[in-house]
Each structure stands twice: as structure tokens, then as C-alpha cells.
């Protein structure tokens, strides 16, 4: 459900430090997170793709082996690929700049149950 989800985009040209804090809070609060990472091949300091997200969360005290994640890459074209695992497994993995991460922390529910 969208009320149990946060959409966070890192795909901006300004600082993402506040967005990183928003990401941490969303993980702590147990939200599902739809995260648009930040490709920046010419400046590694600004690059914040799935691997960097994994290292960032680990550095900030999260047990990334227990955070389930999906990475959807190049959706709707011939290079489409899906990764399913945990955030720790993203360390050192490369994904294209056409990637979206989904951190799933709640179970799917139907509106019929409410």
C-alpha cells in the first residue's frame, strides 16, 4: 500500500544529504521504499547507485543482510533485468543508470481486508 511506502529520488543535481537522512528514517520506520538512485559517472563523490546505498546504510548502523530489496534495471527494453536479494548483496554490484530500487519491509495487503 502506498500509505506504507515512501518514494525518494536521489536523481537531482543538488545535495542529497537530507534525502539520505530521509532514507534512513524510512528504513527505521519500516516503510517500503521506492528509491531512484543517482548516477553521476563523471564525479564519484556524487554517484549514489545501489552499491553506494548499500555501503551508506551499513556505515550508518543498519544490518543490510536483513533488508530485502529488488533492483529493476532498464525496464521495458531488451536489457531489462531484475535483482532480488538483500541490501548487503548490492555491495560492489553495478547497475545501469536506468535503475530503480524497491526496499520492501511490509507485507502486501489488499484494500478488501480493511
TrEMBL record:
<protein>
    <submittedName>
        <fullName>Uncharacterized protein</fullName>
    </submittedName>
</protein>
Amino acid at each position: 500500500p502506498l500509505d506504507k511506502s515512501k518514494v525518494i529520488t536521489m536523481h537531482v543535481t543538488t545535495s542529497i544529504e537530507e534525502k539520505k537522512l530521509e532514507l534512513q528514517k524510512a528504513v527505521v520506520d519500516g516503510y517500503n521504499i521506492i528509491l531512484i538512485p543517482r548516477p553521476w559517472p563523471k564525479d564519484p563523490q556524487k554517484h549514489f547507485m545501489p552499491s553506494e546505498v548499500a555501503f551508506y546504510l551499513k556505515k550508518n548502523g543498519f544490518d543490510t543482510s536483513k533488508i530485502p530489496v529488488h533492483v529493476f534495471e532498464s525496464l521495458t527494453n531488451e536489457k531489462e533485468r531484475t535483482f532480488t536479494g538483500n541490501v548487503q548483496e548490492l555491495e560492489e554490484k553495478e547497475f545501469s543508470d536506468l535503475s530503480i530500487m524497491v526496499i520492501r519491509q511490509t507485507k502486501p495487503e489488499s484494500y478488501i481486508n480493511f
